[in-house]
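Possible race condition, two jobs.
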Amino acid sequence: MKRFTLLTFLLFAFFGAFAQTITVKSFKALPMDMTASSLEGKRIDQNGQVAALIKVVTSQTGFTFEGGTLGIVDTQQRNGEIWVWVPRASRKITIKHQQLGVLRDYRYPVEIESERTYEMVLTTGKIETVVKEEVRQQYLAFQISPANATLEVNNEIWELDADGNAQDYVPFGTYEWRVQAPNYQPDAGRKVVEDPNNTQFVTVTLQPNFGWIEVEGTGNLQGASVYIDNALIGKAPCKSEALKSGPHTVRIAKKMYVTYSETVTIRDNETTRLAPNLNADFAEVTLKVDADAEIWVNNEKKGTRTWTGRLGSGTYKIECKQANHETSMTTQEITASMAGRTIPLPLPKPIYGSLNVESTPNFCKLYIDGKDIGVTPKAVPDLLIGSHQIRLTKDGYADYTDSFTLSKGEHKQIQVTLSNGKEIQFTCNVPDAQLEIDGQKVGSATGTYQLTYGSHSLKATATDYRDYTYTINVSESGSYSHSIQMLALAKDEETFTVNGVSFTMKLVEGGTFQMGATSEQGNDAYSDEKPVHSVTLSNYYMGETEVTQALWKAVMGTEPSYNGGWVNDNGRGNDYPAYRVSWNDIQEFVTKLNRFTGKQFRLPTEAEWEYAARGGKRSNGYKYAGSSNIGSVAWYTDNSGSKTHPVKGKNPNELGLYDMSGNVWEWCQDWYDSYSNSTQTNPIGPSNGSFRVLRGGSWGNIARHCRVSIRFSDDPDIRDFSIGFRLVLPQ
C-alpha cells in the first residue's frame, strides 16, 4: 500500500488524572507481632476492650478510613505504613483518597480479635500526562468476507489479515474498489473519503458460487458411509464441505444394506438434504450348539452355546470351539429369506487321556475339578485332556491340592502322601525370650517347631518385658511363620547422655482427653482453639525440660550462628533454653541426636504437646501447665524481666514437666490448620501447609498467651529470641 505524507498537525497537551481503584494485595494476621498489646500500640475501643491493630503498608499518604457501625478507634501515619486501630469483631473497612479514589466495604478475610496485630498491603494508582495528536487525513478501512478474497483499491492490491481486514491512512478523495475470491461472485464499488473526524468503513460480503450436500442420520442411515463423486466425506449424519454448483454423484453404503446411488444438482448457497431409506440385505438368525462351546463366524467370536444376530447375505465359515475338544466346522449360505431361522451346529469332539491316583494313607476322598470321584486308590479312564485340579482329603490330615496337565492318549500316574502337621517358624523381637507351647517349655522364642493341625496356646516370657500370649491355629492353608512382638515394661523416666550432657524424658501414659478451648480456658480462648474435640494417644516420653543450650552444643558442636546466636541480655548459659533455632534447624539436631543415641527422638505432635501440658492422666484441669496461678509455673511478661530464664526455675506440672507454660515458645511437628470436631487417634496434623505450630507462650507474652490450649504458628525458617523446643520419644 502507498503511504501519503500530506498531513496537517495540530498538537496540544492536556493533563488527565487516571484514577485506578485502590486494591488490597494481601491481608494476614501477624501472630508473633505483639504491638497491639504493647505500651506504644495499645488502644481501647468504645466497649472498653483492647482494639486490634492493622498495619496498612503503602507508599502513599492522605488516606481516610471508615469502619461502618463499629467505627475506627484511631489512626497514625508511620514511615511507609499507616496504623489503624479497629474494635474486636470488625467485619469491613472503607478506604478513601482524594486523588486515588475509594475502596468501599472491604471485608476482612479473617476474624478480627482483640489485642492481635494484622498486616494489609495496598496497591494504588498513579497520575499520568497524556499527549494527544490531531490530524486532518482519515483512515479507509475494509472488512471482507471471505478472508481469503483479493481486494483492489484504485488498481492497487491491499493485503487482508487473517480476519479479512485491511486499512490505510489516506488523503481525502474518491476510491474505486473491487473484491473477488474463488467460488464466489465478485463485487465492486467506490468510497468517498472527506470526513476528518470519522474512519470510513467498507463492508463487503461476497455471495457464494457453491452449495452443500447434507445426509441425515435417521433410521438405518445412521453410521452409513457417504461418498460424493467417489470421495468419502464421512458417516451419516454428515455434511459436505462447499461443493461447486452443478451435478454431483452421491453414494451411501452400509454393511448388510443395498448401496444407494443418486445424482444431485447443487445450487448457489443452498444445502441439498438427503434422507433415503436403505434396503436391507441381511437375515437375523440363531446359531445353536448343544455344548459349552464358543461359536465363531468367519474367525470372529459371537457367543457361547447360542447366538442370535444379523448376518448379511453370503457364505460363512462357522466353527464350534471347546477346551480339550476337536473344533467342529461347517459352511453356511445366508440369504435375506432366512430371517428368524435357528441353525443347529455340529458338536466338538472330546479328546481323552487316563489317570491313576494312589495315596498314603489309603481311602482318601478324591476330587477332580471339584467333582467327587471316589476314594484312593482310584483309576479314572476317559478323562478330558488339558489342565485339571486334584484334591485329596482325610480327617486328621492336611488337604492335598495340586494341578496337572493331561495330553491326548496319555496315561498319568499320581502318588500323594498327606501330612498331619507342619513346621512353624517363630521369630521374636527379644533375643533371650523363652517360648511355651501348650504349657510346655520348648526353648527360645526364635526357632522352628513341628506342630500338629489344630489350636495351640503360646506364651513368651523375658525379663523387663510383658508376657506375650497368643492362640495359633495350625492348618494346611495357614502361615508357616509367626512373629512374636513383646512390649517392654514402661519406665517412669529415662535419662540419656550425649558428650557428657544428660537429659531426662518423662513417661506420658496414653489416654483420651478433650483438646482445645475447654471450660477452664474461659473467655481467653481464641477461635482457632475451637471446636473442642476428643483425642486418644498412645504412650510416649516427653522431655522434662526444653532442650538446653548445653545439650544443643553437645549434639551440634557449636552455637546457632544466626545474628550472633545466644546473647547475654536474653539469657546465655548451659541451663538456659536453646532459642533462636528454626523448625528446620531442629530437624538437623534431631537427626544427629538419633545417631548418637540410636533412638527415634522427634518434635511432639500438637496433640502430644497439649496432652502432656495438661498433665496427661494426672491432669487437675489447670488453665496453665501445672497450675491456674501462672506466676508459680511460668516466666511471662509480668515476671520475666523481658528475657529467658534457666529451665526448672518454676514448679513442674502434674507429670513433672517444667516450663510448658512460658519461658520460650515450643515448636511442634505439625503444620498449622483449623481444628475439626471429629474424634482422632494419634493425630499427626495436615499433610502440608505454610506454617508450623508453636505452643506454650514465652517470657514476652501476657498470661492469656501462655495457656495450655493457646495456638500460634510461624514460618519453619524463623529464628527468634522467644522460640525454643522440647523432645518426644515414642515408646
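Job #2 (started ~2 s after job #1):
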Amino acid sequence: MIRILCSVALFSAALATSTDARATEDVGEPAVDATSGEAGDESVEVANEPQVVVDDDPWALDLPDWFELDAEYRARTSYINPLELSGTRVRSIDWTEQRLRLGFAVKRGGWLALRTRFDILDGVLFGDNGEFFSDPSPISGISIASRRPNETALSVGLRPGADPLDPEAYEPTLTGADAFQVDHVYADVVLPFGLLRVGRQPANYGANLGGHDGERHNRWGVSNYGDIADRFLFGTKLDEAVRMIRGDGGEVDASLDDGVILATWLDLYNTGDLYQAGDNLRQNGLMLTWARSEADWGGWRWRDFALTGAMVRLANDDFDTGIWAMPFIARARVGPIGFEANVSHIRGATRELSEGMSVLNPRPAASQKLRSLGARAIVDWTVGPTTLTFEFDYASGDDDPRQESDLTSFSYPRDLNVGLLLFERILAFESARRAAVGVENLHNLSAPSFPLTEVSTETRFTNALALFPQVNVEWIDRPEHLFSTRFGVLLAWPAAAGGAVDPVMTSLSEDGERIDDDAVNFHGGDPGSYYGTEFDFQLRWAYRSGFFWTVESAALLPGSSLRDENNDAVPSFMVENRFEFVF
C-alpha cells in the first residue's frame, strides 16, 4: 500500500558525470552505470530507449570542452482498447503527447561543474484541447478556427455530476500542464580527497530498485518521471586513498571500472514546521562498491563486474518514523552471458499512515512495522545478433489495509518498467480511481495525513511476482542503421497471500474482525491469484544514432485478479508509435 523510496546512490556513475572522462561515455548516462548496462557490446542490458555514444560517432555535435549538452525531443501516440476491462464507459482511448528534455553542464577544467536538466511540454498533448469556460479551456472557442495549441495533459478525474465516492465515476480527463519544469540544478567539485555534489540532483543513478534517474535505460516503454532529491553527497575511491596514505608513487587511478568506492549522502525531503527541529523528514545513506573491469576467476574471463551494498535510513520525529533500507546489486558479464541481481529489504516503523487511516474506522492510530522486500534478476545470453533474456521481478504486497497490521508492500520506481500494458496502464488507471475515492473520504473527514494517495500505483510494479522471458534480434546493425525486434511474454501473480487487494474499497466495506471476507481487487471482484498474461512486441529503427522510430504493442489476457464482482474481464490491446530525436 505504501511506497517507501530509499535510494541507492550509485556513486561510480555520479563521479563519472563530474569528470572530463564523461566525453567518451554515453551522453544519457555513464557506461559504468551499475544497473542499466547500456554501453555497447559489453553491457548487461540491451536498452530500448536510445543511447547516444559520442566516441566514434561521426554525427556527434562538436562542442567546446567546457560545455555539455544532452537534448532529446520525443512524440508518442498511444492507443488502448479497452482501458476499463469490465466497464462500458472507458473503452478505447488514444492521444499524442510530447516532451523536450534539455540538460546543460558548464565545466571549469575537470574539477568544477554546474549541471542542470529541464523538461519542456512534458506530457503535453498535441492540439488545442478542453472545453470553453472550463478548466482547462482551449485558446479558441471554435475548434476549426484554432491556430495555437494549448498546454493540457491526461489525468484521472471525476465525471461532472457523478458521485465522488464511486470509483466508476472517475475516468480519463484533461488537466492543465506545466509547460516548464526544473529537474536538476546541482554543482560538483572534485577535491583532492573525493567528490562533493550539492543541490537538486538524481536520487539514484541508472535504473534499479532504489530509484530511476529518468534517463534512457528501459527496454520497454519510456522514462517519464525520474526520482530527484535535494542532497549533499560525498564520495571517494578508498583503494586510491589507502595508496596515497602509504606514500606509493604513481598517478592517481581515476578509473571507475576498477577499485573500491565509498559514498555517503544526506537528503532533506520535508522541512516540516520551520520553528521545530525534529519534524523534518531526512534520509542518510552509506554505500560501498567494488568494481573490476576485467578479471580471470575460476578460469573464466569476467567483465564489468561490480558489487554494491548500501544502508539507508529515512527518519523524522513527527510521526515516529524510522525506516532502514538495505539494497544490494551485483552485475557482471562472463563470455556471452550477462547478469544483474538486485535485492532491497526495508524494515522500520511509522505512525503516519495509521494517522490518516484511523478517521475511516473506529480503531486508534498506532505505529506500524514496515517489512517489505523487492528483488529483480536479469540474465542475457547473446548469440550472434540474438539476445535471449530471462527476467524475474518481485515486489512484496499487502493484503491487510487495517492500521494495526504491518506494512508489507514494496513498489518499484515509477520508471522501472515491467511490460507495457498490465502495470503501466490497466492497474495504474484502476488504482488511480480508487485512490481518488479514498482521498475524497479523508478530505471530508479532515484527516491529518493522506496515505491513500499512495494507493495509486502510477505505473509502478507492486504486489507482484513476474516471469518475463524475452528475445531481441538485431536484424540490421550498420553505422547508419540499426533495426531490431523484441518480443516478450509477461506472466504475473499477486505477491501477497490474500491476492491483489484494493485497500480503499476493502477498508470502506470492512464489517467485522476479519478483513479477508471484505477484500476486493481494483476492479471490485475477488482479489484472485493471477493478474494475467501479457504479450509484448517492439520494432525499432535507429538512424545515425540520433533519430529513433519505435513501434510497440501489447495484448493482455486478464486473470482472476483483474475480474469484477460479476467475474467479468475482457482482453485488452495497445499500440504506441514513438519518434525520438536525440542530441
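The chain has one domain: 11-545+553-582.
Logs attached separately.
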